[in-house]
Amino acid sequence: MPRSKTHSFRALILSSLAEGRSFIRKPKISSDWNHAVEAMTMYGAQITKIEDDVFEVVGVAGKLQTPNNVLDVKNSGTMLAYLMGVAAACPGYSIITGDSSIRNLRHISRNTIQPFEELGVQIISTKGDGMAPFVIKGQVNGGEAHADGTGCQPIFSLLVACALSKKPVTLLVENPGETAYIDSLLYWFKTAGIPYENVGGTYTHYQFPGNTIPHPFDVEIPFEWSTPGYPLLSALLIPDSRLTVCGMDHTDPYGDKYVIEVLKNMGGNITIDDHGTLTAQTSNLHSIEVDMNRLPDQLPTIAVAACFAKGKTVIKNTKTARWKECDRIRAMYEELSKMGAKIKEREDGLVIDQDGSWKLHAAEIDGHHDHRIVMVFAIAGMMCEGTTTITNAEYVKKSFAGFFPEMIAAGAKFELLEEDANHYL
């Protein structure tokens, strides 16, 4: 598996805010990483690659400088969330934008506006729709704010800004969701020595004492839990298959690791040995009703699994999947429909009824400029007679650049269309 994009990003942001010299070993180098390096450098951090897989970060120690250019997060909602938090801690003006998905689909961003204003932050959505581009001038300096926690990303923004406040801050959250992703940020707060209290452990009440500067750290980035589900699913579905994934850290708080539990609940034969090695073998899957709130990024994986699981699978409580690199609920509905699935779209998920009257067939699939859509339809295409073509294949580099080579090595029949390097069949 690749190194964790998720942990790499959090380590980079917090080390850039720390006082002193941090070392990040074996980070996941991706477009998100490169854009984050550029952004945090504009805020004053010194970030240097000192070895092939080691970065040295000299943090700003609480003295953020005003960026000298517009910050462009491209299609990374996570980066948008964190940079909004950093901007709210900076006394100067920050201008943050992104691609079309960030500017037009990231509706969840509007949930940052009221709580930031409660904390004295000036924040303007230039189009007036609560989405990027944003103009933000900090800084948070104590107080109390109230937020809607339906999606985790606005809470990321607020927690980062509150952690850097000079005076005590209280953050009160209604409807806390995606809490497994919140845990991954709180894990990094502990790593960086940031004091906080998640009062009662309910994710509804946070307290920060103020006047805290993050500590430097020396860390090795673990493997990415958002990626094993794709190859493991292929082994569950394809006859006479067995596939092993090594090196995963099962103590990692990242929520996507629960995809293994969901697949096992569907009847997937997945075993874990004493060393944490995961092995999947061909299985007969059955339908389930599953609340995906703690792992919404895995909706595409479970949707494809449901196409091969006897009965009616209900995927629910994952409305935030609509606000990712694309509207993943709509994308899965559209593309699986092309392949012949008996599928219904709901506001917060999908219903897939594998009643035995249909099976997926080959189709031309739109990758929707989304790495997870590309990977999961590559798995679906392996189960179909004929040739399935998938656009935007280059987007897998965002999280799993080795996906196609690794799968080919394991026996998958993928071929890059040389006349258009953005398509795979």
Keyword list:
alpha/beta; globular; 4-stranded mixed sheet; 13 helices; 5-stranded mixed sheet; UDP-n-acetylglucosamine1-carboxyvinyl-transferase, Chain; 425 residues
Structural summary, described in words:
- Strands 16, 17, 18, 19 and 20 form a five-stranded mixed β-sheet that branches. The protein has a four-stranded mixed β-sheet with strand order 2-3-1-12, with helices on one face.
- With 425 residues, the chain is an alpha/beta fold.
- The chain has 13 helices and 22 strands.
- The chain is globular, with a radius of gyration of 21 Å.
- Helix 1 packs parallel to helix 2, helix 1 packs across helix 7 and helix 3 packs parallel to helix 6.
- It has two domains: 216 residues, UDP-n-acetylglucosamine1-carboxyvinyl-transferase, Chain (Alpha-beta prism); 181 residues, Enolpyruvate transferase domain (UDP-n-acetylglucosamine1-carboxyvinyl-transferase, Chain, Alpha-beta prism), CATH 3.65.10.
- The longest helix has 13 residues.
- The mean pLDDT is 95.
